[in-house]
Amino acid sequence: MRVPGQLYLTYLLALCLGLLCVIFVVYWNATWRGGFAWDGSAMQFNWHPVLMVTGLTVLYGKAAVLYRLPLTWGGSKLPWKLLHASLTLLSFLLAVLGLIAVFDFHNKGHTPNLYSLHSWIGISTVALFTGQWLLGLASFLLPCTPLELRRRAKPLHVWLGSTIFILGIAASVSGINEKLIFSLKGNNGTAQYSALPQEAQFANMLGVLIVVFGLAVLRILSNQAWQRPEGENSEVTQPLLQD
Amino acid sequence: MRVPGQLYLTYLLALCLGLLCVIFVVYWNATWRGGFAWDGSAMQFNWHPVLMVTGLTVLYGKAAVLYRLPLTWGGSKLPWKLLHASLTLLSFLLAVLGLIAVFDFHNKGHTPNLYSLHSWIGISTVALFTGQWLLGLASFLLPCTPLELRRRAKPLHVWLGSTIFILGIAASVSGINEKLIFSLKGNNGTAQYSALPQEAQFANMLGVLIVVFGLAVLRILSNQAWQRPEGENSEVTQPLLQD
């Protein structure tokens, strides 16, 4: 099967954009938000955007497009399923750590949790991700799952995967916007957000990068011609321990 | 061709959710934000969320899934192309009016425009929408367009259509979040956003409805089995004036 060069280009673009997102979110918080700590201070909060963007967006996105890499197409699918499960598990753990960072910061400062639309979308994303990971484990790795259930679970798993990714992008954009509104008030030596100081330009650019990374990943996922060529039953006959 | 009941159910769900989004955004601004006017006041601003949600999200989403309606599958495609073009044009005009509402409000209050990430995503969405509409007109309705160009433009038009829709969802979520942060500061007789007063709960719910509507529309668009059955060349042989 001929693999179009456009797939490689889009894949490379997604790789570079993802890396840029991580660099940007770390640099933003290290340079303008005071850096990182785990002491209940604003420096602990700074882990929240870093861990969410790195876990729920970048790593998740890269795990989602793993099967589109032509080098994964030959031979057994099992090693790649295990890598996909590992990457999404790492992505999930980073996201949970990112949630702990913000809940802990809020609780120590007696700030309410989960009131903003950003937080509603974000927590729903992680809740769905939890279900998705467990569904994936049960459906595609455990050998005791009936084959029919495995077959039926795949379209749901694929659709829910993209859904969670899109929700993560919406949560990231609204979260960066919210953080800049809260932080850039023209006091504490900062300029106002509306004056578009360097930090605002940089963090806005981070938001744009996340969106473009998301679109590149969705482009790879949605192109039917770029899917892993599979035999009729290849998905259902390779659970864990049966390979 | 058998049409699965799930398509009808998802379509009905998208219709109801879209209607609910419009009702919610109007009710929010009419009840808690002081209603509507076109006088440069905050009441003029209130047209912004109403017009953007109605135009750029709900009407746009409904126009995008038009061809998935089985009743559009029989006979000539041209009337449906014209309806699709008309709905997206109306959607575009509402969005432009929504932009004028906020620019005018900002300018009269000497507030800078286009500084927040929300505004960057929003203005990019409308810019892409402009290009998309013109591309659609040139590619699929004008009879002078070369057939090869018409054929090549379709995948781009379809992909850009979903992209603009996703960007619109991200802009809506970040915009509602931003508006609630700016409005619910615990002064002027309002409770703080963090206290989650009734307005905050209601507008957050609007954001959730928009996201769920978006996911329903994307579900319809992404399911290959629900696409309009087309002959090899049906797309390229029905430009305007040639039907």
Write up this protein.
2 copies of one chain form a homodimer. The mean pLDDT of chain A is 93. Chain A starts with a helix and ends in a 21-residue tail after the last helix. The first copy, chain A, has helices at 5-31, 42-45, 47-64, 78-108, 117-141, 147-183, 198-222. In chain A, helix 1 packs antiparallel against helix 7, helix 5 (117-141) runs antiparallel to helix 6 and helix 6 (147-183) runs antiparallel to helix 7 (198-222). Chain A has 243 residues and is mostly helical. Chain A is globular.
Low-pLDDT regions of chain A: none
What's the N-to-C terminus distance of chain A?
Answer: 24 Å
Overall SS class of chain A: mainly alpha
Strand content of chain A: under 5%
Biggest sheet of chain A, open or closed, and with what strands and sense?
none
**Biggest contact:** A-B, 40 and 40 residues
Radius of gyration of chain A equals: 20 Å
Number of strands of chain A: 0
Mean pLDDT reading of chain A: 93
Q: How would you spell out the order of helices and strands of chain A?
A: HHHHHHH
Shape of chain A: globular
In DSSP terms (H or I, runs of 4 or more residues), the helix count of chain A works out at 7
Task: Tell me the helix content of chain A.
Answer: 55-70%
Quaternary structure annotation: homodimer
